[in-house]
Write a structure and sequence with these properties.
With about 325 residues, this protein is of the alpha/beta class. The chain has two domains: about 1-120 and about 265-319, Quinone Oxidoreductase, Chain A, domain 1 (Alpha-Beta Complex); about 140-255, 3-Layer(aba) Sandwich (Rossmann fold). The chain is built from nine helices and 16 strands. The strands form three sheets. Strands 3, 5, 6, 7, 8, 15 and 16 form a seven-stranded mixed sheet that branches. It has a six-stranded parallel sheet with strand order 11-10-9-12-13-14, sandwiched between helices. It has a three-stranded antiparallel sheet with strand order 2-1-4, with no helix packed on it. Strand 9, helix 3 (about 150-160) and strand 10 (about 165-170) form a beta-alpha-beta unit. Helix 2 crosses helix 3. It is globular, with a radius of gyration of 20 Å. The termini are close together. Pfam families: ADH_N, ADH_zinc_N. GO terms for molecular function: mRNA 3'-UTR AU-rich region binding; NADPH binding; quinone reductase (NADPH) activity. This is Alcohol dehydrogenase, zinc-binding domain protein. Keywords: NADP, Oxidoreductase.
Length: about 325
Amino acid sequence: MKALTFSSFGNSDVLEYIEIPNPELKTDEILVEMKAIGLNFADVYRRKGNYHLKGNPPFIAGYEGAGIVVDANNHPEYKVGDRVAFADVPFANAELVAVNTNHVLPLPEAISFETAASILLQGLTAHYLATDSHKTTQGETVLIHAVAGGVGQFLTQISKLLGANVIGLTSSSDKAKVAIEQGADHVFLYNEDWKSHVLEIAPKGVDVVYDSIGSTLADSFKITKECGQVVFFGMAGGDPEPVDPRMLMDGSKTLTGGDLWSYLNSKEERIKRTNQLFSWIIDGKLIPTTPTSFRLSEGKLAHDYLESRKSTGKIILIP
């Protein structure tokens, strides 16, 4: 099979599209022929050598995708030709992937391979943020950092679906337009006095801030109301400053950490959460943006485009 690989860490020049042996199935795995693969910043970090990575050189990144079962490996619940997807299986940047049966997600006919590969990691992240990290309720005001990014777009739509008012923050007017199209009620730019703008809309502060930037954490608390919450789930802008617990006590504020892998902790949880996403999409309540597609053989171009920060939606790789 062909796979997008790298044998040393570095910039996108280390990527190689080469022929490697097919996966050897373990007893608890099935073999999936990939039709679409999600590209994420974690894959860039893996390529650079600063994120967890399984296997030995030549390394294969990727954890998200969709395809067709080509070897059910004597598992009676699957058959050749079944449409499936996964959100947390390594070595996805290849034509064939061995998928543990506990991680297999049945894919409805109404959801395309391309859609599945573009929504799972980011959509499931937005889902747990809005329903677990913070239980969004009707009439709340939420603030979303990086609102035009993949998670930000889903989080905007889900928050609106659950009845919240959404304020977004982003870096450019073009990205602000994207966020408004996704349903955000107000969007401000980071180079503005965004804290003052937010407090004009919500004088007592917002109910919850979703902070994936990290370096903005102190500012996030400044615009959170008493008894409000900040959900910290990423560090795209660098490490946050230490949080003063006295500040939390004085304002009865809550800091919550968020990581998707804490919630994708069983086959039942994976399928339940994914089916909720699929149901919202099928019913027209959640509308994913059309992903930007590259051939798997064009992996270098896809990585360069993702790192350019020019993209506002998902990037997928097509074997």
